[in-house]
Amino acid sequence: MTEYPKPRIPAQPVLSLASLISDKGSAGNNVLDAGDVRFVTSGRMAIALALQQMNIGRDDKVLVPAYHCSSMINPVVWVGATPSFYRIHHDTSVDLEDIRNKIDANTKLLLVANYFGFPQDLPAIRAFCDHYGLLLLEDCAHAFFGQSGGRPLGSFGDYAIASCTKFFPVFDGGCLISSRHRLAGIDLRGAGLGFEIKSAVNTLERGFTYKRMEPLRILLASSMRLKDRIWQRVKKRTATGHISLAPGSSEGGFEFEPEWIRKRSSLMSSFIVKYASRKRIASKRRANYTTLLRVFKRLPGCQPLFPALPDDVVPYVLPIIVDKPEWIFPALKRAGVPVIRFAEFLWPGVDAQTCAVSADLSRRVMQFPCHQELAPSEFEWLIETVNNVFLSSGHIENGLEAISN
Length: 405
Ligand SMILES: *Cc1c(COP(=O)(O)O)cnc(C)c1O
Hints:
Elements: E1 36-40, H1 43-53, E2 61-65, H2 70-78, E3 82-86, H3 96-102, E4 107-113, H4 122-132, E5 135-139, E6 147-148, E7 151-152, E8 159-163, E9 174-178, H5 193-209, H6 214-237, H7 267-275, H8 278-296, E10 302-304, E11 317-322, H9 325-334, H10 356-364, E12 365-369, H11 376-404
Parallel strand pairs: 2-3, 2-4, 4-5, 5-8
Antiparallel strand pairs: 1-9, 6-7, 8-9, 10-11, 11-12
The structure holds pyridoxal-5'-phosphate (PLP).
């Protein structure tokens, strides 16, 4: 596997003092307004918990999108159910016709994702599920904010899930949401003092890495060095040198660790999710998205996945469809751009035959950060660097054509 340099700008929100400036205004709708909410350590753990709440298990079939990441499928397999992959259309909307054809006597649940923050037609999907007697799980990992048919996302499913790390400057966090069931009775435990400390320290350190909160970094510098020394010693004393205080999801991993299903999210993360200004998050993301969209529209060899930004959408990232992904993706990574490809690795066996659109999008759609914690200079750097990569790819193509002519 190719090693790329660490991204020059933060891929996900990092903590700054501005993150915590609270305002009384409401962002309007977000998943926390959708119903009862419980905080766990990641979105995938919330999916597992939702499946358990719905008693999904052996012999059950769960309809999942062919356009997915493994975090959405692992919990389904873990509870013993069988994933059945349905098709999506070019605009990422679910193909209800294909879903209808895949329903059989064992099909219990439909999982739908609001990709990149853009809502599915949830009133229609809800009606479809009611008609066919299916449960609905709404995956709002990309859509902490937004609505469909005038109602907040997360309120249509029997259960819904969200991922806090994608929208807030937090180390861990996922939400289980339900507008139909009380969640207070679910037994969740704290993950221990080690995890709490790790979450708080990492949240600060990730901010420090990208030059946030400089005065605080200087103030804490010697304590942080001391902490690193103690940590090294503790590691040396354990047999493997590998100690896990936190789930892999917090380190950017895709693994599924069932021991974290019933663990509460850290105090630090819950605090930030509660107090960060949602209005600021929503308006900055929309503004950044709009600027990036305007610039990227003019670049050669690509087009936006969504040509417009509707009023009630708060984007997770800017998705762009690229003509020459094999060239552009590594070139962007080498330049330090935190570009991501959702669904880069499809579940084994899922291919163009399962869904031609998903196979195509998984290869060609690249996502660029538009989060609220990008500083103006970082944002300018992003635009300039991406511009240069696309323009030089144009030159290379023209050059090759010239040679072959
Ligand atoms: C990231 C993601 C998840 C899982 O969220 P984590 O917090 O990373 O566990 C689930 N669904 C989708 C669509 C995602 O992108």
